[in-house]
From TrEMBL, chain A:
InterPro entries (alphabetical): ABC_transp_permease, LivM-like
GO cellular component terms, A-Z: plasma membrane
Protein name (record): Branched-chain amino acid ABC transporter permease
Subcellular location: Cell membrane
Top-level division of the source organism's lineage: Bacteria
GO molecular function, one term: branched-chain amino acid transmembrane transporter activity
Species per Swiss-Prot/TrEMBL record: Tianweitania sediminis
Residue runs in coiled coils: none
TrEMBL record, chain B:
Keyword Nucleotide-binding: yes
Any Pfam family the entry gives: ABC_tran
Record GO terms (molecular function): ATP binding; ATP hydrolysis activity; L-isoleucine transmembrane transporter activity; L-phenylalanine transmembrane transporter activity; L-valine transmembrane transporter activity
Lineage of origin: Bacteria, Pseudomonadati, Pseudomonadota, Alphaproteobacteria, Hyphomicrobiales
Organism: Tianweitania sediminis
Protein's name according to its UniProt entry: ABC transporter ATP-binding protein
Residue intervals of the ABC transporter domain: 6-253
PANTHER family: AMINO ACID ABC TRANSPORTER ATP-BINDING PROTEIN, CONSERVED COMPONENT OF ABC TRANSPORTER FOR NATURAL AMINO ACIDS-RELATED
UniProt-listed GO biological process terms: D-alanine transmembrane transport; L-alanine transport; L-isoleucine import across plasma membrane; L-valine import across plasma membrane
UniProtKB/TrEMBL annotation, chain C:
Primary localization class, coarse: membrane
Keywords: Amino-acid transport, Cell membrane, Membrane, Transmembrane, Transmembrane helix, Transport
Membrane topology term: Multi-pass membrane protein
A Pfam family per the record: BPD_transp_2
GO MF annotation list: transmembrane transporter activity
Cellular component terms (Gene Ontology): plasma membrane
Family under the similarity heading: Belongs to the binding-protein-dependent transport system permease family. LivHM subfamily.
GO BP term, example: amino acid transport
Localization: Cell membrane
Transmembrane domains' residue ranges: 12-32, 61-84, 96-116, 136-158, 179-205, 264-282
Protein name from the UniProt record: Branched-chain amino acid ABC transporter permease
Length: 339, 259, 287
């Protein structure tokens, strides 16, 4: 298994190199723009994956929390003259505070009830933004958000913001990787698997689910803050449920409950959508049936299917070497060495 | 006089107007195997759910080691040392057996979110102990060889053993087994009975619900019989076998005792 | 007095439409235990088909309603067969996502055919009815009357006919129903057909006093979900009572509180009630 870890690092290394090199090989600035936007959605999708994929609670208000983060940056910078970075630092925490209270209310409900309830929460967020003219600019939206800057360093070109977004994407992946492989992440997965069993194993359901939910809304807020700094224009539609549906598609295509699935899904689908642009608003004619076919025939997504295949191969290899009378506790020792 | 680890006094659970468990007084002796039997619908699983905290009781008392616990949640009961298995074992099929087991010892660790993000020494120690516990439990149930297999790819009998291992990994004082031999063949049933004996030999208290009478009679030190939610008898297997009330309950309820 | 009466009439109108939509949703939930997020799309498609049959083909309003109900019923049955039936043993998450996929697809198809613009279905009856000093537009009275007739009809069908009682039996006890020879496949197809037809009828009735556009189902379906959570998922009386409660809350809320925020009332009510009673107002008998 040590070999697998090495392979994994090589895999991450190649991905990172490709991402860093991308702007230099892109034939025009628009491609860099699209990729940076895909990364922002990827961060948001990782947040959704944490609660829906790892913890098994399909939160349909995720785009609403992204909008809260985005509007935190938009309103603070435009209306109150707060420097971008200060506003940006608040994007995640403010979304997480709202998420914490929404979580306490909604996570008492299970499965469908939770999803429907959060769908309503998302709609409330949207309606509050859309109707709250005096505070949120209502349907007009927030215009003229300043470019991200740290002191003299201003990220005002597409390529510079691309690298900023990439840095946050790498950070999110890194934190998420540590989290989901830890016993904390394992208790999330135990709840997804069966909440009765998890509870019988001594896991406090409410506390654990609220933690996962709050963290996922924090990530949603963070991605929303990046969105505000990158697109520099906000409308209430960002909170709409169809953005959550897009995020679900990203997570599913890449592999729900896998670390890199949402990233792969967001990047792949963004480019597929780009190539379907001639369809304009009708892309959902392709997209909708694709979602259905995915859950029917390919529910584990790209990374999930690959992971299961790898695990089977590894188990079979283990069986073979066991019959060749290698040390019986081989797997255990190896596992320890990797821990 | 053996020590009583768990005791119920007039424990009652009503759903609507219906009493699923009614005024049950029961004692579980430390370190021994207690079986709960009864015809279908006798309230056995409800009784289990009451002592594991899944349902709050309607009335009555539940004592664990001299402490009243009838208002505790399942996770609190697990912390106090009550581990249980379910009739159907829901493992995460997309992960390996070992990955499924590691979380079993989570309740004895204290690492939080920040420990995970900053990979503190506490987290590393906790992960080591969780993994070691999982390996120990898997070894105990005799399944070290399937550690790296996907949970989807193990047999029904192995699944039962994994469920035992998961419960053992919580470091329990009492192990509640809900139909431990449900859905496995006669040979495997013998193997599982041996495993239950082996668990009991370590000093752990075992409580089980089972329909397979020959297994119960050969295994249990003490048997509690429920019928229509009420305790109608308790005693040694020999006493139970000779008890006319028990025979009537089983014959009257259709012949599922034979199953 | 007249103003108050107008609010009552409004509440009844909205409540009737919501109840009809919620009834279809709750029936499907009772049988298959899936929240059909695509139900709002059935509602929307129903409105467009009526618009097409009554507008472009120039048919009578009632003919349009029947054609639309039949068409949406068939569409609902096809989606049961092709999507929900194959997914019946999958995790709940998959059903929900597939329903979302269907919703996105239907909206896109409608938009491709009729565009994103607003359309209006002409009202079949434009007279204003008068009783003493009270006035009531005929269309609203029609909605309320038709909804009541449909609900009574549905109730008779479910309680008094053999076919209807198979639905009730399956909702109460799936295994038991299968044991006495009720085919779960037929029951789910039938339930989907009824649910689709109810959505189409509700949309056709509502269309003349509202606009027709691709996203018209969004708010209605969300409110229908609020209704069936409050009324108990799977409960038929719960859907009717819940629909009326939300209809009245909106009509009076719009008038006495704020017209701007009237759409939020249902959701705030849900959040408020579920915070106090997580099991809903009327916990359903069906698990």
């Amino acid at each position: 298994m040590r070999v697998d870890y090495r392979m994994e690092y090589v895999f991450y290394g190649i991905l990172l190199l490709a991402a860093v090199a991308f702007p230099f090989f892109a034939t025009n600035e628009y491609q860099v723009y699209v990729m940076a936007l895909a990364f922002i959605w990827a961060i948001s999708a990782m947040g959704l994956n944490l609660i829906a994929g790892y913890t098994g609670q399909l939160n349909l208000a995720h785009a609403g929390f992204m909008a809260i983060g985005a509007y935190t940056v938009g309103l603070l910078t435009v209306d109150y003259g707060v420097p971008f970075w200060l506003a940006f630092l608040l994007a995640g925490p403010i979304a997480a505070v709202v998420g914490f209270f929404a979580g306490i209310l909604s996570l008492r409900l299970k499965t469908h009830f939770f999803s429907i309830f959060t769908l309503c929460v998302g709609y409330i967020i949207y309606l509050l933004i859309e109707k709250g003219d005096s505070f949120t600019h209502g349907p007009v939206g927030v215009i003229g958000i300043p470019a991200p800057s740290i002191g003299p360093l201003v990220f005002d070109t597409t390529t510079s913001v691309y690298f900023l977004v990439l840095a946050f994407l790498v950070l999110t992946i890194w934190v998420m990787r540590r989290l989901v492989r830890s016993i904390v992440g394992r208790s999330f997965v135990a709840i997804r698997n069966s909440d009765d069993l998890a509870e019988a194993l001594g896991i406090n359901l409410m506390r654990t689910k609220v933690l996962a939910f709050t963290l996922s809304t924090f990530i949603a807020g963070l991605s929303g803050g990046l969105f505000a700094g990158f697109v520099r224009f906000l409308g209430p539609d960002l909170a709409r449920e169809y953005h959550t549906f897009d995020l679900i598609a990203f997570v599913l295509v890449g592999g729900i409950g896998t670390l890199m699935g949402p990233v792969l899904g967001a990047v792949a689908l963004t480019w597929v959508t780009q190539s379907l642009q001639f369809l304009e608003n009708y892309r959902m004619i392709v997209f909708g049936p694709m979602l259905i076919l995915l859950v029917m025939f390919f529910p584990h997504g790209i990374i999930g299917t690959f992971g299961i295949w790898m695990a089977r191969r590894r188990a079979n290899a283990g069986k073979r070497s066991n019959t060749q009378a290698v040390l019986p506790s081989r797997s255990g020792e190896e596992a320890r060495a990797n821990a | 006089m053996p020590e009583i680890i768990l005791e119920t006094k007039a424990l009652t659970k009503r759903f609507g107007g219906l009493a699923a468990v009614k005024d049950v007084d029961a004692k579980v002796e430390k370190g021994r195997i207690t079986a709960i039997i009864g015809p279908n619908g006798a309230g056995k699983t409800t009784f289990f759910n009451l002592i594991s905290g899944t349902f709050p009781s309607t009335s009555g008392e539940l004592w664990l080691e001299g402490q009243r616990v009838e208002r505790k949640r399942p996770d609190q009961m697990a912390q106090l040392g009550i581990a249980r298995t379910f009739q159907t074992t829901s493992l995460f099929d997309g992960a390996t057996v070992m990955d499924n087991l590691i979380v079993g010892h989570r309740l004895r660790t204290s690492s939080g979110l920040m420990d995970a993000i900053f990979q503190t020494s506490r987290l590393k120690a906790d992960e080591r102990s969780c993994r070691a516990k999982a390996e120990e439990a898997l070894d105990f149930v005799g399944l070290t060889h399937v550690a790296n297999r996907l949970a989807a790819d193990v047999t029904q009998e192995e699944r039962k053993r994994i469920a035992f291992a998961l419960a053992l990994a919580t470091d329990p004082k009492i192990l509640l087994l809900d139909e431990p031999a449900g859905g496995v063949n006669p040979e495997e049933t013998v193997g599982l009975a041996d495993l239950i004996r082996k668990i009991s030999a370590t000093g752990l208290t075992v409580c089980l619900i089972e329909h397979k009478m020959d297994m119960v009679m050969g295994l249990a030190d003490h048997i509690i019989v429920l019928d229509h939610g009420e305790k109608i008898a308790d005693g040694t297997p020999a006493e139970i076998r000779a008890n006319p009330l028990v025979i009537e309950a089983y014959l009257g309820a259709g012949h599922d005792a034979a199953a | 007095m007249n103003i108050f009466f107008q609010q009552v009439l409004n509440g009844l109108t909205l409540g009737s439409v919501y109840s009809l939509v919620a009834l279809g949703l709750t029936l499907v939930y009772g049988i298959l235990h899936i929240p059909n997020f695509a139900h709002g799309a059935f509602f929307m498609v129903g409105a467009y088909i009526s618009f097409y049959v009554a507008g472009d083909l120039g048919a009578n309003f009632w003919v349009a309603m029947i054609v639309s109900a039949a068409a949406v019923a068939v569409m609902a049955m096809i989606s049961e067969r092709l999507i929900f039936h194959p997914l019946r043993n999958s995790p709940a998450l998959h059903d929900m996502i597939a329903a979302i996929g269907l919703l996105l697809f239907l909206e896109a198809v409608v938009q491709a055919i009729w565009g994103a613009d607003f359309h209006r279905l002409p009202a079949p009856y434009t007279t204003i009815l008068r009783f003493a000093d009270l006035t009531a537009p005929a269309q609203r009275v029609l909605i309320i009357g038709a909804a009541i007739v449909l609900m009574i009809g549905l109730q008779i069908f479910l309680r008094r006919t053999t076919t209807g009682s198979t639905i009730v039996a399956t909702a109460q006890n799936r295994e038991g129903a299968a044991l006495v020879g009720i085919s779960p496949l037929k029951v789910s197809l039938l339930t989907f057909a009824i649910s689709g037809a109810l959505a189409a009828v509700a949309a056709t009735l509502f269309a003349p006093i509202n606009l027709i556009y691709p996203a018209m189902g969004h708010l209605v379906i969300l409110k229908a979900f609020v209704i069936i959570i409050l009324g108990g998922m799977g409960s038929i009386p719960g859907a009717i009572v819940g629909g009326m409660v939300i209809g009245f809350a909106e009509s009076f809320g719009a008038f006495y509180i704020s017209n701007n925020y009237k759409d939020i009332i249902a959701f705030v009510l849900l959040v408020f009630i579920l915070s106090l009673r997580p099991q809903g107002l009327f916990p359903s008998e069906v698990r």
